[in-house]
Design brief:
By secondary structure, the chain is an alpha+beta fold. It is about 30% helix and about 30% strand. The protein has three helices and seven strands. The chain has helices spanning about 5-10, 60-85, 110-125, and strands spanning about 30, 35-40, 45, 50, 90-100, 130-135, 145-155. The strands form two sheets. A five-stranded mixed beta sheet has the order 1-2-7-5-6. Helix 3 links the parallel strand 5 (about 90-100) and strand 6. The longest helix has 23 residues, at about 60-85. It is globular, with a radius of gyration of 15 Å. The relative contact order is 0.25.
């Protein structure tokens, strides 16, 4: 049986990838009570970083938004791995977006809109969330964006 979110993703032409394995000594998610914390996800596509570089130098806002959307897709993949069924996801509570950017770049919120807009499109009102969008001097593997999330899930 396909969840409502996966049905909507299919309508958008998106198939969730397999959830990425951790790249170091941490777990990809932690469920405690009815909260699911997803570790930072990178803009992975087909097993590789799809968008690398620095906003304000190598990357423009469109590329940053593409990276953010890929991170959001990977967040949903981790949520599915954690719950076994995205219908168990009650809502997205918060995302924190890290943007690999120069000191002069100030459009981090526009970049993270790539994830926010996609998550609302995929999840409807349950995808509306609190968020932070911050600059980072660098990110793992040179990724342009990294995003972590907190979901409310059915117990």
């Amino acid at each position: 049986m396909t969840s409502k979110i996966e049905t909507r993703l299919s309508e958008l032409g998106i198939t969730l990838p397999d959830a990425a394995a951790p790249a170091a000594n941490y777990v990809p998610f932690v469920k405690t009570g009815n909260q699911l914390f997803i570790s930072g996800q990178l803009p992975m596509e087909a097993g590789a970083i799809a968008v690398s570089g620095k906003l304000g130098a190598d990357l423009d806002i469109d590329a940053g938004q593409r990276a953010a959307k890929l991170c959001a897709i990977n967040l949903l993949a981790q949520a599915k791995a954690a719950t076994g069924d995205l219908d168990k996801v009650v809502r997205l509570v918060k995302i924190v977006g890290f943007v690999n950017s120069t000191g002069e770049f100030t459009d981090q919120p526009k970049v993270i809109n790539g994830a926010s807009d996609f998550l609302v499109e995929a999840m409807g009102d349950s995808g509306r969330h609190a968020r932070s969008a911050v600059s980072a001097a660098s990110l793992p593997f040179g990724a342009g964006v990294e995003i972590e999330a907190i979901f409310e899930v059915a117990e």
